[in-house]
């Protein structure tokens, strides 16, 4: 009888824990946020996911080196407080100038659960104005820094919805943006445009912080106007950080599909002065998805932290070395 009782208790315990007891995945407190999900592996890569103020990556680090800008006010969050911090690894949907308000997605409380070894899922509430619910799935590789970030839009309305993926992650300030050009698809004369405010687009910008070198554009630091848009279909870009890590994102591009941003952007970088916001926003943009009621559409960003030296004073970033490290990731 006792053995049967223990067996029943064990079964109940397993059901309660479900997928919580998985290798490389556990619940932790991060800053002031309880019940965050930490994904980790033997390479020293750690990703912390939070669901309290939107579904975000709160930390993504390699050997203790943080890659994300984490605002000081993240530590001031309380469950019943009015503060809704918005930093670190953010995701969104767009197009920016068309999408209605969506506080349920951007700053609402999400559901969070561990779904397997080094795997987790974050699920939003429904945003009625946009007609969308979001599902974000994360998988950390077992032997590299590779973090798969898949965002799925689900049409929960009774009409067709047309939206796109919009990554809005904040990296630490002071890095160098590297955007590979794709001449066969180039539409912008200089490979990029610059936004002045919210209603002026410069198609022939000149800025000393942005230069073309070989087949790459380099953003050496905050330009005169922080918002930049690119027409690259290379499927990757990098952000070389001062801590000798290159933050690389890879993702699929679709030259034959419609990109719905105001200038058909496939990528945007927002790089303000440090005294304004000490971060650099790295924003892959997906093509427009047409979703009938009940349909879903997904977009995947692959994140990597690659050991790569930040250039010393009066020297240049070795673009060929960086490209050689990225190419194997694209296969």
Structure description:
- By secondary structure, the chain is mainly β.
- The protein has a single domain, classed as Beta-galactosidase, Chain A, domain 5 (Distorted Sandwich), CATH 2.70.98.10.
- The protein contains 3 helices and 24 strands.
- It has a 10-stranded antiparallel sheet, covered by helices on one side. Strands 12-22-21-18-14-15 form a 6-stranded antiparallel sheet, with no helix packed on it. A 5-stranded antiparallel sheet has the order 1-2-3-4-5, with no helix packed on it.
- The longest helix is centred in the first third of the chain and has 16 residues, at 2-17.
- Residues 1-19 have low confidence and may be disordered.
**Largest sheet, order of strands side by side?**
7-8-9-10-24-20-19-13-17-16
- CATH uppermost class: Mainly Beta
Number of helices: 3
Q: What is the terminal separation in angstroms?
A: 57 Å
Poorly predicted regions: 1-19
- Assign the CATH architecture: Distorted Sandwich
**What general form does the structure show?**
globular
Strand content: 35-45%
Structural class: mainly beta
On the 0-100 scale, what is the average pLDDT? Answer: 93
Stated plainly, the CATH topology is called Beta-galactosidase, Chain A, domain 5
Helix content: under 10%
Number of domains: 1
Q: Give a quick account of the main beta sheet: strands, pairing sense, barrel closure.
A: 10 strands, antiparallel
What is the rounded Rg? 21 Å
The helix/strand series, from N terminus to C terminus, equals: HEEEEEEHEEEEEEEEEEEEEEEEEEH
Please report the total strand number as a whole number. Answer: 24
